[in-house]
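Hi C.,

You asked whether I'd gotten around to modeling the 61-residue construct. I have! Everything is below, sequence then structure, no commentary in between.
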Amino acid sequence: MASSSMSQLKRAVVFTRALDLSREAAADLAAQSGMTVKTGVTRLTYYLVVGAQDLTVPGSP
C-alpha cells in the first residue's frame, strides 16, 4: 500500500456517545479536515471522539 494511502487510513475518526452537534455535522467537519469517518473502532482508527456521558442515567456507559 502506498504511503499516501496509509496516511489516509491512519486518519480515520469514530464518534461515540452524545455530541453537541449532529453526527452528520461532525462527519462533515471531519471530512473537511481530511479525515475519513468510520462507524466503529478498528486497528486503523486514529481519532476517537468521545461525546458527553449522561450521568443522570444509571448504568450509562
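If it helps when you're writing up: The helical segments are 3-10, 23-32.

Thanks,
B.
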